[in-house]
């Protein structure tokens, strides 16, 4: 007996959108009075929209945000992470908003650790649509 034909379907998205994640992050930043931050992205599709939305959130706010720039990492052309380490060191903010995939996050945090930017005194907020799941935790 063949299965009954569906007449329609409903798609329920349980994950939060990038915009929702950023709204929550900015509420946390405001709560802790962390107004100076930088944006770090990889070339993950949607990174330009991420950067644009950060600008919308900061420009439309009465909070005196101090946006200290955007660093876009090209991990494909930098397998050893030397350029990423140099680029990450150029950012003066201790609060960093990172947009990337789960696999890229491991490479970014490896470069940050090697550059001395992943220890006490640095706060990273990772935003992305596919960061959850996986059976193992990232090493870094």
Automatic annotation (TrEMBL):
One of its GO terms (cellular component) is membrane. Gene3D superfamilies: 3.40.50.2300. This is NMDE4 protein. InterPro entries: ANF_lig-bd_rcpt, Peripla_BP_I. The keyword Kinase does not apply. It holds the Pfam family ANF_receptor. Coiled coil: none annotated. Residues 9-126 form the Receptor ligand binding region domain. It comes from the Eukaryota. Keywords: Membrane, Transmembrane, Transmembrane helix. It is found in: Membrane. Its main location: membrane. The gene is Grin2d.
């Amino acid at each position: 007996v063949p299965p009954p034909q569906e007449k329609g379907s409903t798609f329920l998205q349980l994950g939060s959108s990038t915009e929702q994640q950023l709204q929550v992050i900015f509420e946390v930043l405001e709560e802790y009075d962390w107004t100076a931050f930088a944006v770090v992205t990889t070339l993950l599709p949607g990174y330009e929209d991420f950067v644009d939305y950060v600008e919308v959130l900061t420009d439309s706010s009465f909070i005196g945000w101090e946006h200290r720039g955007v660093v876009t990492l090209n991990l494909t052309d930098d397998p050893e992470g030397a350029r990423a380490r140099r680029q990450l060191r150029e950012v003066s903010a201790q609060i960093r908003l990172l947009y990337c995939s789960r696999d890229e996050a491991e490479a970014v945090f490896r470069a940050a650790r090697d550059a001395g930017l992943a220890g006490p005194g640095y706060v990273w907020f990772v935003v992305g649509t596919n960061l959850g799941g996986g059976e193992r935790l990232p090493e870094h």
